[in-house]
Amino acid sequence: MLNRRFLRTKVFQALYAHEQSAGGSAAKHEKELLLGLDRTYGLYIHLLLLVGEMRRLAENRIDGRKAKRMPTQEDLAPNRYFVDNPFLVKLSESRVLLEESEKRKVGWVGEKDLLTQLYKRVEASAEFNEYMAAGTRSEAAERKLLVDLFVEHIAQDPGLHEHVEARSIHWLEDLDLACTMVKRTLETMALRDADIHLDGPGEDAAEEREFITTLYRNTIQNKEEDERLIAERARNWEADRITLSDMLLMRMALTEARSFELIPVKVTLNEYIEIAKAYSTPKSKNFINGILDKLFAEMKENGTIHKVGRGLLEH
Fold first, then answer.
1. Is 49 in contact with 106 (CB distance < 8 Å)?
2. CB of 160 within 8 A of CB of 114?
3. In this structure, what DSSP letter does residue 239 have?
């Protein structure tokens, strides 16, 4: 199942594009939203494969050193901690990842120079060298290495960014989101599982599509009323003085609180504050929190918000 924050962020981007289009077709932007989700998932698969490629390059490096004309003892008995990292092995041998990559026609064939550059960066990193020098490694340390290498070195590489931009301008726009998905997969992998679990559409695809379309359509439908409610509680600010990103995030939060009975209000509030940290101004977090706190309290009191099941949880 796709991460809900990822879905909210994609809806926010689609709503922002719709607002900027000054009366453009909402249906057109909704269609682009759904296509964009699929593109981002393809990039996620592409990047996840990249982590496994680091193991193949390490194996090739070991084999190359053994084949030297006059190999050293270290060449003949290499340190295999990295290539034997159980999480890296699981990822590089994943059948579900291979099947998904073949279906989407993504992979790293023909990218030898970039892959070599990335592996050299990994091999030169402090995290890699500390890991290779450690006498013992816990399961947590094995996992942490992959997360750190991906987040701090692979995802930050300018050559990777150039590669992504060359493949698709849409991919470049969604690189941060796809990297977050890869990080989440690495953090949640379990050695006891038969294979890895991809952070993508599966049995819940219909539910995810309903969440996206309902949030998108209802936010547009409720625009006038929600902007009025927000402006009335924004310390006498006029609606047009509130930044577009802040207004959209608050409108989405109000729509979500009304439209989804199973999502706790606290979850909704926290999610949009987190998105504001990435997409709005430094002061937005406190501003949005203050306005939504007031509105949610009033909506609970007048019955506009109705929650059932797990939606009743406040913590």
1. yes
2. yes
3. G
